[in-house]
Write a structure and sequence with these properties.
The protein is mainly alpha-helical. The chain contains 27 helices and 2 strands. It has a two-stranded antiparallel sheet. A hairpin with a 2-residue loop joins strand 1 and strand 2. Helix 14 crosses helix 16.
């Protein structure tokens, strides 16, 4: 690596540490100041911070691989998460969440179910969910950043005592970066996280623009068109995927056939089904939730969520498309000559392009940008996890009357514990990929049904929430265990078929069991106290099946009106998904030089922006502060 690139990375790391520690004094006023920035951070800074936190290395490497292999229609793979849950948050969920004026996602649950046994059971399971998922993601980051830096950086730095290897080079790199990030995150809480993430966002945007710009100078239209087909460029699809690559690159077509997405129509249908319920369920209790609760007002929560969508996708996909165009021209011919090509080969595209095909200077900025992506995502998780330990467990059940200074110290300790547990998992987990799949399929799969019902059904209570979460998590975990042991199951057996089914097609089963647990838990227990329900509905005012509660409120206040915005919100979500998709497609088409489709994407972006100005923004501006 050239000295210029190394200097850029060193300057970036030192600048991040300086800014993070410099603003840390603002975090010492209390828990609200530490975890929510005292509700005093401007919404556009929180939006940039939230966008930066979603711009992670592992996700970027995955997106590079699927865009390379599947072409433009690969943006629909993002619906697996689903990315447009941010649209639902923007349109109505941010407003509902922020109206509660609390500190964490699990504390929010008490406003819905009350502070009795049922409420505390639901509160506890959300806190445990949040802590376990944060620890799991830190383990994932530990493994991921170590592998990435080992491929990129030229030094081998294992820790050895005599013949005893204590740390591999990957582990040494990971510990150094995690230690540096943890220092400023713990020192400054939300203030440091937001300040450093704004810097990191700026660096990532510059890196994306430079990489995309470099492709225009280094690679010609003729070279691109010689590789990609019309099907690769197209967003349209039928029930089955057609031949995305020409016969010259048959190995890539064979790889697509082996990956389980050939029935693309059914796959997209299932992602839409899952995505709708997962999106209404709302953000999981993590850094996204914390950003919403950190805003100064309800109106600013909506602004922040909309701004997150606006700032994230275009710069991110400029970077991704730039890397893919370089890879298509310089790597595709040699990769397609490999008869044993597997999906894992696509994961090395990002580091290979950075190592060998990006010029000096741009390489340093790109590495700083990807390092920034890791540090911003990691710091967001480290800030959100301890909030649940200190505020929802320690303060609530063990030491309710301590001083602010005491809780800040407890938060520092909790942060170190969470990071240490995550690092230990990273050391000892046999397969970090398996761990991540368990988090995203089991934990998140079991989350959806109960959290969907909490918004839309008045009779749903704390025990229903608790047992719905438990049922979903148990079934999803059993599916994961089956998946891990599928090599030992006899072919032709029912369990064999379930174990070899793609996780997305099992979502209705997990969702169904979770719904059943939610219903039975609710049916066999008493309803939530009506005073809690009235307080919740008057504050949050969701749409859904709330008629008995609305009638009770109307007996006390005849002027009270229920929320009738369901169809308007759904229309805005549909327009918002098209708006968001145009921001993904616009930079892709620009970088692959398909200018007619670039113009179409731009026109769609402008039209949907104008529509949302009247149907969403004007409505948000009328929300009282």
């Amino acid at each position: 690596m050239d000295v210029i690139d190394i200097s850029i990375i060193v300057i970036y790391v030192l600048l991040t540490l300086f800014i993070g520690i410099w603003v840390s004094k603002k975090a010492s006023k209390g828990l609200e100041s530490y975890f929510l920035g005292g509700n005093n951070i401007k919404w556009y800074y929180l939006g940039l911070s939230n966008g930066s936190g979603m711009f992670d290395i592992s996700g970027t490497a995955w997106m590079v691989g699927i865009l390379f292999l599947y072409g433009v229609k690969s943006f629909m793979f993002m619906w697996l998460w689903p990315v447009w849950n941010q649209i639902f948050v923007m349109m109505f969920l941010a407003v509902w969440i922020r109206r509660s004026n609390i500190m964490t996602g699990s504390e929010w649950i008490l406003t819905r179910f009350g502070d009795g046994k049922a409420g505390r059971a639901s509160h506890s399971i959300v806190a445990v969910f949040a802590i376990v998922s944060v620890v799991g993601f830190i383990a994932y980051f530990f493994e991921g950043i170590g592998k990435f830096l080992t491929i990129i950086l030229p030094w081998n730095i294992p820790l050895e005592i005599g013949d005893l290897l204590l740390l591999t080079s990957e582990q040494s790199y990971a510990l150094i970066i995690i230690f540096l990030t943890t220092i400023y995150t713990i020192k400054g809480g939300m203030f440091s996280v937001v300040a450093t993430e704004v810097l990191q966002y700026i660096i990532m945007v510059i890196a994306g623009i430079l990489v995309a710009g470099y492709t225009f100078f280094a690679i010609t239209d003729v070279e691109i068109n010689a590789i990609i087909s019309e099907e690769w460029r197209s967003v349209f699809f039928g029930n089955e995927l057609g031949m995305i690559w020409s016969d010259k690159f048959q190995a890539f077509n064979d790889l697509i056939d082996s990956e389980g997405y050939k029935m693309f129509g059914a796959f997209i249908g299932m992602t839409l089904f899952k995505g709708f319920f997962a999106s209404i369920a709302g953000p999981v209790p993590s850094y996204d939730f914390q950003r919403i609760l950190s805003t100064r007002t309800v109106k600013e929560a909506a602004y922040m969520s909309g701004f997150t969508n606006l700032v994230l996708y275009i710069p991110r996909y400029l970077l991704i498309a730039g890397i893919v165009v370089i890879a298509l021209v310089v790597l595709a011919p040699s990769m397609s000559a490999n008869p044993d090509l597997v999906g894992g080969d696509l994961e090395v595209i990002l580091p290979k392009v950075i190592n060998f095909h990006v010029p000096v200077g741009i390489k340093g900025l790109l590495l700083a940008g990807l390092l920034a992506a890791f540090m911003s995502t990691f710091s967001a998780f480290v800030n959100s996890g301890p909030a649940y330990i200190v505020n929802d467990i320690y303060k609530k059940y063990f030491k309710p009357d301590a001083t602010s200074k005491h809780y800040i110290k407890a938060s520092h300790i909790a942060s170190f514990v969470v990071v240490a547990l995550g690092v230990c998992m990273g050391f000892f987990a046999e397969s970090i990929n398996s761990l991540t799949l368990w988090i995203t399929s089991a934990l998140y799969g079991g989350y959806v049904a109960a959290n969907f019902l909490k918004w839309v059904w008045w009779r749903f209570n704390g025990w229903g929430y608790f047992w719905g979460m438990v049922a979903g998590l148990v079934v999803a975990t059993l599916q994961f265990i089956l998946d891990q042991n599928k090599a030992h199951i006899m072919e032709g057996d029912l369990l064999y078929n379930i174990a070899h089914m793609h996780a997305i097609y099992l979502f209705p089963i997990i969702f169904g069991f979770s719904l059943l647990g939610s219903y039975l838990g609710t049916y066999f227990t008493k309803p939530t106290d009506i005073s809690v329900l009235k307080s919740f509905y008057k504050e949050v005012k969701p749409w859904g099946l709330w008629k008995p509660v609305v009638n009770q409120i109307k007996t006390e206040d005849s002027s009270f009106e229920k929320n009738n915005d369901f169809w308007m919100d759904m229309m805005n979500c549909a327009i918002g998904i098209i708006w968001q998709s145009s921001m993904i497609l616009l930079p892709i088409y620009l970088v692959i030089r398909d200018y007619p489709k670039t113009l179409i994407a731009l026109i769609i972006f402008i039209i949907t922006s104008i529509i949302l100005k009247y149907t969403w923004l004007n409505k948000v501006q009328k929300i009282p502060n």
